[in-house]
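Hey, I'm writing a tutorial for new members on how sequence and structure tokens pair up, and I'd like a real worked example in the thread rather than a made-up one. If someone can provide the structure for the chain below, I'll link this post from the tutorial.
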Amino acid sequence: MKAYFVSGIGTDVGKTLASAVLCQAWGADYWKPVQSGGLEHSDSMEVRRVVSNPGCKFHAESYRLPYPISPDASAVRAGITIELARFILPETANTLIVEGAGGLLVPLNESLLVVDLIQHLRLPVILVSRHYLGSINHTLLSLEVLFNRGIPVAGIVFNGAEHPETEASIMHFAGGVPVLGRLPVCEQVDAAVVARLAQGDAIRRPYESGA
């Protein structure tokens, strides 16, 4: 089974959209290990809503936390203990897309970060970056964390408005990590939009980019 962990340089940079397009394009399964807040409209529900590929399956979260704050704080408020042993990759014959919570250094408990979960699952990372003031720093810091941990980086997906100078600066220092795709600004996201993005050149498989 091929599996990839989709992480971002921060919150609200487009991990869920990227995950949906990957699932649609590759017929991949989707798994969100930790959902913190938004249980009435979770990321799993959103991906299910916009992915029309019939081969895609959706796997239940390991933790559904009720408060829209960092997972460690949400778990404490809810009286829940997040344990690394609870995170087991779903069994599937498909490629599996695993979407993280926030960025790499988001805490899951007093001693566990999202990057520790990635190492536990032994997955390569697809990193989602979005242009804003400071995004070069945040993208390169995220790559540095992954490199220092020895975690393979399958590629970068740029989401939102194009900014060639920013992308060029990032890729100059990215250590040869390939660009897997660029997702445009979407005023609304629905199944038709995701299907169109998946059929075009927005996303490529890592092996097609030399990863």
